[in-house]
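for ur thesis appendix - ABC transporter domain-containing protein. copy paste whatever u need, i formatted it the way the template wanted (i think)
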Amino acid sequence: MGARMRACVCFLVFLLHLGDGDGLSTGYSPSAFLRSPPKSFRSSEGRLHRPAPSVRLHPLSALKATVQAVDLQDRDPLIFARDISKANDGVNFQFEGLTYTLKRGQKVALVGRNGAGKSTLMQVLSGRLGADSGDVLFQGSPSVIFVEQEPELEAFGETVRETVVSLESPHSLALKELEKANAEATKSPNNMAAKNHLEKALVRAEDLDVWGWESLVEKMVEQLNLKHLMDRPVRQLSGGERKRVALAAALAMKPDVLVLDEPTNHLDVFGIEWLQEQLAGDDTTVLFASHDRRFLNFLADELLELDEGRLMVFRGNYDDYLRTAATRREAESSELQAKQSLLKKELQWMSRQPRARQSRSKKRVEEVENLKAQVKASVQRMKTKERKMNLKAAAVTGSKRLGNTLIEVEDASLAFDEKVILNEVSLTLAKDDRIALVGPNGVGKSTFLKVLMGFQKLDSGSVKKGTTVQVGYYSQQQKDLPHQRVFDYLKGALKASASDEMDERQRALAYEAMMSKSVPVEMAMNNAVALAESGGESGVGDMDREAGVRNLLRIFNFPEARWYGWCDLLSGGEKRRLQLMEVLAQKPNILLMDEPTNDLDLTTITALEAFLETFEGALVISSHDRQFVDRVASSFLALEGEGEVSRYDDCTYDDYMDFVREKEELARKEKEREEKRQRERERAEAEEKRKQQEAEERTKRKEANIYTETAKKMFREQQEMRITQEFEKAKKDREKEEAKQIPKKEAEQKNLKPMRPKETKEFIEISSKLKVLRNRTKNMEKKCKSGELHGRELNALYQKLGDNCSILFRLEEKWFEYAERLEMFGKAELVDQYPSWL
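the 3d part is after this line
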């Protein structure tokens, strides 16, 4: 009885240990699930949830990125889930009877294996998806935004700018209202209603800090590498670009609860560090699922583990979770041992007491059967959890022996439009290389891997591969899996790998036959074909392939119930695991892996790290998972932009980031120095310009003084000249006036009278006649003197000339009389018109 009592006591101690949430340093407390929600909570049914975010912008906090311990008991409950269950296929529950309280300001991480139901649980807690049973209750009306792994954006804007900077966001509306109120107040300054409206609009704008909006948008767009995408239609975005756009819009929205499914996917290290600092320095409640362990350690103050439909809570970050999980496994192991010991004693009692099966001991027998079932379930659960992935068994180095040089890149250049990816880059990949490609998003890491694979053609240069190279390429893009059973799909991958190997073996045997006279060529080829059809020495026939598939599926913890499920119906993480199995099944001796940890659960990532550490071949990876890179890579190949590629050996990711930060700091200081030099140059130029202007001003003042004296002198001379001119004019006017008076006096003396209009007209007519008569007289005189006429004709001409001269004399006499009278009485201008005949 002593052993039995000790086992019972151990079991009770374990239960008490679990029940006391404060008993563990990290605060593991299943009893926390059982609290009832306050009356102010209400169901999520009927609430309108926005699946994709609008923009709400606030200034970034300068808070140091350090998660400090907080007392979760002091926080207000925000979301309460009570006895919720969900089965996506209607039969197999992903979780059942879960109860959990999410408190305001918490940063909660959700972990679990691929396919465990993490995404489904987040959708249920955010109100995006209804539970099959149970309730999800909300305190008040909190705004909840869920950013899924593959967000849909088309409904929220045509372009990235419209999606990120929503015109219907509170900031935009507040700014519009402020502009409207300001216009009203300006138009009607004495209107009290307009003044009150303006004051309310100002208070609203200050509460939302609309003036910091544009600067925050610029910072967010820069950190998430969206600057070049702002005017691009969202329908043209890749999956990673969509994720970054949705994340930017969600962060700007500033909701009460932010639910993020793998937020670090498609972010570079700079973006991840900015994101974790942004979330840590904010009071927004965050529920997130992530495979990035450093991100988990930095941000999480509580972890939820979803395992076989059960939800377990761990206080603290990821390291605390690992320690607590280890402690819990030890406690569960002690509990199992106690139960097994107790069961053994009870079974011995039953075997010694045949009559124990009588009715008086029936209750005890039922208890034994229940204990037996509990022990069996616990043993099965412990076996499942303790089964470690051994990817070493999933793939072995290919049978081909590797040379010293596997891939050689020589003077490779590549550019897309104006963006240079590679600029005369040369690289030799050796068999022991473990290289991590690093650099900001969009610099060309995925493109460089495609260049190594031969999928991307270079503008110039070459890529040469060794003859024994077998490359396994794991793409960042998730494959479109066919509607095929998982088992059959992997079997086909193994068969394809075996066929490739057999093809090479056939070629090798054919070559041997050609070189050897003892082996006929036809016999050698037949042997090769037979070897390929049978599976050969490598044991890759149908039976062996099926065994290999079963081995892979067990290693990757695929439940047997899902072996014959459809590939296209797997979860995102399960599809990525299947893609990884397909690559490893090819038995590569070079692995090119583009973001291999995306969508994988932490168990798979840990196992993949262990495999890659002992992988007998070369490795080139592109990953932003810092802990993963530190474990599997020893060198860094940094794509630094503008086609520049630099290699750093024997360093960690932190070393590389320190170097980048030091380089940025040096660049910043150099920029500051250059700006200082520029300011000094501008000050010197301004000083020189000021001195020049002063000199010009002095010259102008001197010239102005000279001009003033000259002007004064000229003014005096002009004044004197004007006076003289006025005097002379006055004198002339006086003389003219006096001259006018003389004709009048003469006219009076001669008894002349002013010209009448009739006489003036006659004067004009006489003037015209005189001109004609003068011309006629001249012509007659010429003709008389010419000698052309004689006798009577000449006498007749002289007679006419005499008559004409008599008429001319009388008219001239009359004309002079009229002219004198006109001049006497101020009409000399009429006389001056006819001077030509005089």
